[in-house]
Amino acid sequence: MTLSKGDEYPIHQTPEPVAFSGTDRNFYDRFFFNGYGPDGEDFFAVAFGIYPHLDVADAHFCAIRDGKQYCLHASRKLGMERMDLHCGPVRIEVVEPLEKVRVIVEGEGISADLLFTGRAFPIEEPRFTWRVGPRTVMDYTRMTQNGHYEGWIDIDGKRRALSSGTAGTRDRSWGVRPIGAADPQFSGGAAVPQFFWQWTPVNMVGRSLFFHVNAYGDGTPWNTRGVVAPDGNGPEAFTDYQEPMMETPLEAGTRWPSGGTLKMGGESFTFEPVGRFQMRGLGYTSPKWNHGLDHGTLKVEREDIDLQGIEPVRPDNLHVQMLCRVTSDNGDHGMGVFEQLAIGDYAPLGLKGLSDPA
Length: 358
Fold this sequence. Notes:
The chain is mainly beta. It has one domain: AttH-like fold, CATH 2.40.370. The chain is built from no helices and 24 strands.
């Protein structure tokens, strides 16, 4: 049987049932969320992915308290049903498309009930198409939206209501990127892989700030955009800035940003880190919980990460979100994340080798 709940809705993109997504085994469809209190406290994040041609769904929830990152991982067989947005202890509810989304978590001593409400219409980032030699490694679209949260998080019986003013970002991305088991024939002709990524969604006063860049090893961007989105508005009110530039010092002995200065148009934004989140807690670059890996009918596991005790240059620790205070040279201020993943050579920061530190 290939018919599913999705076939009841007018959302088909091919002549086939919704259970099929073209022919590329690396097709994926993902939800992402993060949030933080007005002073940067109680950071949390969520990832939920569906991989139609691998017939797998997986989900991850993380919350930071007292220097520890508490993580919940889950994976299940998809059963060709893409409209069931649950994976073990994690469930997504679309309350109002493009505006309100709810996340519910219950398992392994970790629970939460979180309602996200967008501040403005989501921005559509430029289509990400990245080829290495003859291979199309990435080909996907992402929409990103800043907003506010209501709800609570409970870790081992200690429940905290989200602070008034808790904000954050959510995104939806879909398309093709490396997922599941690694391709043993893919090398791209290079002895060491190269990938450089920065992403900075920020909640400012009355507006949202967005910047991202993917770049080649010499620093040439292959995908970038800088946008300011005023609250309560749609794309017609967004301001795009040409050639945004981020100056990035690195923390000694790591590949993590120790801050940064973003220049867009005539405005300059300074990023001051106040905390760090390890993206492997959401499956990114995790040897065990990388996205799309097959763990059988259902597998759930908890992982607690001591943020001060990790090895910064271990490959699965390179990918971080630095929670930052952000100030503009015009006096505006806010909070947001500075996400970075630097694998391989990157000349502008003097990086060489797979994960050698600055």
